[in-house]
């Protein structure tokens, strides 16, 4: 059984990016620049954004963090995005989700210039992804594909079951796995809350991607021997015995599932780190596109 260690795979990707950035700087050019907007002070969002900024610094990117209060007016947030769209020194823009309920996430996503949409959520980039055109791939699915590539996990002709149909993970993941590419060519089944016989469908899977946000939902009786299991879930579960008062749980009951698999991602230390790697690669691509 292979542990698909996100630390190992992401570090290899970051080393490659670091060398590319150094080459850019050696030519007397500016470094790629990622701007992040954080609305409010959600604990998980704070952690994610801090990690993204830290990783930018590690590989030599410039980064900007714009903090806005949780009660900020939608128009003010859209104004900030507009300014970043027009700033030639900003290559990539991300707005950390989720946003407060009074702000339309869709309106915010559509406000970002598609050429700077390194999260890959803009309808223009989603449309390109569906058509198999070069575009920004949503960071988590992109990170998963990079992980499959790093550990040389075969996908051609495999049956992949994706649990979850979000625009952030499930839908783009199903497109990537079914695409006619080196790490695609799967037959893909997308499951969700209305899927009957979910256990039986999962038992047919060579690859399971669990992205539904329910801690330890996937049990051993849902996984066939030798399957590859990708756990996208990352939920804070209250635990009084833990130092921070909570523990991070994935969507897979790792302790009971791992021994049945040929390869599995841990949580934490798996897909989350690869998401950042995907984001960094998108940002470098945005820089290259903007400076072609």
Bulk shape: globular
Oligomeric organization of the protein chains: single chain
As a percent range, the share of strand residues is 15-25%
Could you give a short account of the major beta sheet?
6 strands, parallel
Taking the alpha carbons of the first and last residues, their distance comes to 43 Å
Q: Radius of gyration in whole Å, from Cα?
A: 19 Å
User: If you average the pLDDT, what whole number results?
Assistant: 95
Overall structural domain count: 2
- CATH architecture label of the largest domain: 3-Layer(aba) Sandwich
The sequence of SSEs as H and E is EHEHEHEHHHEHEHEEEEHEH
Q: Structural class given helices, strands, pairing?
A: alpha/beta
What ranges have pLDDT less than 50 throughout 5 or more consecutive residues? none
**Strand order in the sheet with the most strands:** 1-11-8-7-5-6
- Discrete helix count: 10
Overview of this structure, please?
The protein is of the alpha/beta class and about 290 residues long. The chain folds into two domains: about 25-115, Rossmann fold; about 140-270, NAD(P)-binding Rossmann-like Domain (Rossmann fold), CATH 3.40.50. Helix content is about 40%, strand content about 15%. The strands form three sheets. A six-stranded parallel sheet has the order 1-11-8-7-5-6. A three-stranded parallel sheet has the order 3-2-4, with helices on both faces. Strands 9-10 form a two-stranded antiparallel sheet. Helix 7 links the parallel strand 5 (about 160-165) and strand 6. The termini are far apart. The model has no long low-confidence stretch (mean pLDDT about 95).
